Amino acid sequence: MPICTQCTCPVSYLYTVYQSMNNLRLEQCSNCLGFADPYVEHDALTLLLDLILLKREVYRHLLFNRGSEPRHMGQTSADDTRQRPSRSKDNWALVVKLGPSLILVDAVIRWRDNKDVPNHAFPQVLAACFLDTLVFHLGVTLASILLLKSMDWFRTTFNRPYSSKLGTRTEFRIPLVSLTLFYSSLTKLFLLLLLAIWRSPMSPTAVSPVEPGTGLPYHIAQHELARSTLALLDESHFDRAWVIRNVLGGMSAGFGLRVLLDCHPVLTTLAVLFGWCSKSLAAQSVDCLTGMSITLEYSIP
User: Fold this and answer.
1) Does the keyword field hold Nucleotide-binding (predicted)?
2) Alpha-carbon gap, residue 121 to 128, rounded angstroms
3) Residue 64: partners with Cβ closer than 8 Å, 6 or more residues away
4) Is residue 155 a contact partner of residue 162, using CB atoms and an 8 Å limit?
5) N or C: which end of the chain has fewer CB within 10 A?
């Protein structure tokens, strides 16, 4: 059953179709009285931009509502139980379709940025990236399942049942964890691609380094605190790719899990850390076996 993207209350339908697919009316949520899912009318580019901007409503649309059958004119009830198996299969199919594309992009970025890896070692980098992603997703999925089981036990023991309006809990499926992580990685990959383009030389001639504080007012640029702060942001001291991959990547993964699991951010952070630890152990093993530093041992895939 689809849910409202604003309050996560389950709804029977997202929109009603009149005579043709181009003639439709959005359904209203009975709980918050807003449109159940305005993203039904948005195109793929809008969805992609909102994913990069980490909007929780687009996560709920893609995870729980995409592919839901509309209400046809004259129809009064829906058989949602009939749709659930096919929607679960669609989620697995989407994981298989989306995963290799994002892994390939990540592998190209790693291969280009890692100067220690020879050019002919791209297949090894791709295989290592696939292994990193697989282990990370398995770790986060296991942690998410244990987290939900613990929350169920806590609520049962202390007689605090879930609200009937919490659709994210009743509609949770295992493949949604991997989908959430893949969707969350779009922000990180987008910025890494921009960083790769920015680092590319525009001409074969060498570019002289820019002094910290260039372009700022003189009294600010000459201040010792300002100069030391700007010097720390220099690429020789500040690894921008590491910050994007780990800090921003970890935050976006935690945000996506927060939307999916609907629990405290500390718990989703623990789930991400568990997957990160599992991935780091696997990456160290791969590097030891291959004798090359083809994996990012302490980075979030």
Assistant:
1) no
2) 11
3) 2, 3, 167, 168, 171, 176
4) yes
5) N
Q: Which domain holds residue 4?
A: 1-72
The mean per-residue pLDDT over the stretch 18-30 comes to 82
Overall average pLDDT of the 40-65 stretch: 93
Provide the token pair at 107: 């592998």
CA-CA distance, 71 to 2, in Å (whole number)? 12
Mean pLDDT of 243-268: 92
**Is there a single domain that holds both residue 41 and residue 167?**
no
b/e code 81-118 from CB counts within 10 Å (16+ = b): eebeeebeeebeebbeebbeebbebbbbbbbeebeebe
> What SS3 string covers 149-200?
HHHHHHHHHCCCCCCCCCHHHHCCCCHHHHHHHHHHHHHHHHHHHHHHHHHC
Domain end marker among 72, 103, 132: 72
CA pair distance 283, 132, nearest whole angstrom: 7
The tens digit of pLDDT for each residue in 105-149 reads 998 888 887 777 777 778 888 888 898 899 999 999 999 999 999
Task: Please report the pLDDT score of residue 125 as a whole number.
Answer: 83
164-181 residue pLDDT tens: 567 788 889 999 999 999
End-to-end CA distance of the chain: 32
Assess whether 37 and 148 both reside in one domain: no
Q: Is residue 206 part of a domain?
A: no
Q: Answer yes or no: do 55 and 160 share one domain.
A: no
Residue 25 DSSP SS3: strand
Final residue of a structural domain among 22, 41, 72: 72
Are 1 and 117 part of one and the same domain? no
Tokens of 106: 């990540």
- What residues contact 188, with CB distance under 8 A and at least 6 apart? 244, 245, 248, 249, 252, 300
**Between 108 and 223, where is the model more confident?**
108
